[in-house]
Model the fold of this input.
Amino acid sequence: MVERILWRADPQPYRLPADSLLLQDLAFLGFTPDGVETLTPIKQPKGGTLTSAPKAYNRQLAALRVRIEPVISSVKRFASSKI
Done:
């Protein structure tokens, strides 16, 4: 019999200051820390399309996130070089 080890993520691995604003992507749909406002893109319905208002919201959110993506990449690159 093959044993499988399943890792369970810490329900709240990140400690964020209260009243923070968190820009999320669709990979973090279930992550909602207490006391933190989250902005998540609106997902396209299965077999459907988004109307113009949700598309505009997603574009505005993407414009905010694109400014911080290079910083996130740099942090990940630095962290991986320390391992």
In short: The chain is about 35% helix and 10% strand.
